[in-house]
Design goal:
Elements (H helix, E strand, L loop, with lengths): L20 H12 L4 H17 L3 H27 L28 H25 L3 H27 L3
Helix pairs in contact: 1-3, 2-3, 2-4, 3-5, 4-5
């Protein structure tokens, strides 16, 4: 498995988080919506496999490292969802048993350049979404988690932007 591309800083613990419906509603889309961490894991895995198949091992390894980081975010958000009082169901609004996540949201672009363009857009959206969450959250413990994830997302955006500059059609 690839080494995760993350900021060199530990993630906050979820141990002391109490149930909080408001915070749960705010962070839930980051978990398993069409633009959430689950989608990022699947999309980046798909893109890394394609890069590897075309012989771009170094780029595939970078994308894999970002996918691994997104898996770590997914797990941390799942633990946070549980601590906030819901089951970590793969939906945009846990614990609701509707609007389940679908892999139809993954970018199945055909060219390597389009894949990275889609990844840049996904990371821009993640950075903006996490920043908006921080503006709305009143739960300091959850804010610490979101803030830490945001640091990684900024790093991912930078990495994908640099990779886009290297990719030719």
């Amino acid at each position: 498995m690839a080494r995760p591309l993350i900021v060199d800083k530990p993630y906050p613990a979820t141990d002391d988080i109490c149930p909080d419906c408001r915070a749960l509603r705010i962070i839930s889309p980051a978990y398993a919506s069409s633009t959430g961490e689950l989608n990022a894991v699947l999309q980046y895995n798909y893109h890394a496999v394609n890069f590897q198949a075309k012989g771009f091992e170094e780029y595939a390894e970078l994308i894999d490292g970002i996918a691994v980081a997104e898996m770590m975010h997914l797990k941390l958000l799942g633990k946070t969802v549980c601590a906030l009082g819901a089951l970590p169901v793969y939906t945009a609004c846990p614990p609701a048993g509707f609007n389940f996540y679908s892999a139809k949201f993954v970018s199945y672009s055909r060219t390597l350049r389009n894949m990275i363009e889609d990844d840049v857009l996904a990371e821009r959206h993640a950075v903006m979404s996490y920043a908006r969450m921080l503006d709305r959250l009143r739960n300091d413990k959850v804010s610490e988690i979101i803030s830490r994830i945001l640091e990684d997302e900024k790093l991912h955006l930078q990495a994908f932007t640099q990779l886009l500059d290297k990719i030719s059609d």
